[in-house]
């Protein structure tokens, strides 16, 4: 058994019923996100929806935004912008680490 699969947040593990129970929402809410193309789970060989932990996080955030009064299009845009911001922050952290390592090598900024 490959235990790494347990850590894979993108592994389609949860049925619609399980996902709804975890999130505290009704199954039609999850189906509506899929029908709108906002959170699209993979399908099992029998055609049943299978959600990943990552998708559960997205659905949870969308539910919170909808509860705050945003419509689905606005909530989805906010979610996408939040994801882009997280990626940019991760890239900045990586680049700062690389810059710090290059400065440590000669005691000063690159090019000195």
From TrEMBL:
Gene3D superfamilies listed in its UniProt record: 1.10.1660.10
Protein's UniProt keywords contain Magnesium: no
Coiled coil regions, renumbered to chain: 71-98
Alphabetical UniProt keywords: Coiled coil, DNA-binding
Pfam families, sorted: MerR_1 (PF13411)
Keyword Coiled coil included in the entry's annotation: yes
HTH merR-type domain mapped to chain residues: 13-81
InterPro entries the record matches: DNA-bd_dom_put_sf (IPR009061), MerR-type_HTH_dom (IPR000551), MerR_fam (IPR047057)
Protein name in UniProt: Helix-turn-helix domain-containing protein
Organism of this sequence: Prauserella oleivorans
């Amino acid at each position: 058994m490959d235990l790494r699969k347990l850590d894979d947040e993108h592994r389609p593990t949860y049925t619609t019923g399980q996902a709804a129970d975890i999130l505290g929402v009704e199954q039609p809410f999850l189906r509506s996100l899929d029908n709108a193309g906002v959170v699209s789970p993979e399908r099992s060989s029998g055609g049943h929806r299978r959600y990943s932990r990552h998708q559960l996080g997205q659905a949870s955030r969308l539910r919170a935004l909808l509860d705050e009064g945003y419509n689905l299009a606005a909530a989805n845009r906010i979610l996408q912008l939040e994801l882009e911001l997280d990626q940019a922050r991760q890239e900045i952290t990586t680049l700062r680490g690389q810059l710090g390592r290059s400065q440590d090598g000669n005691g000063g900024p690159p090019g000195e």
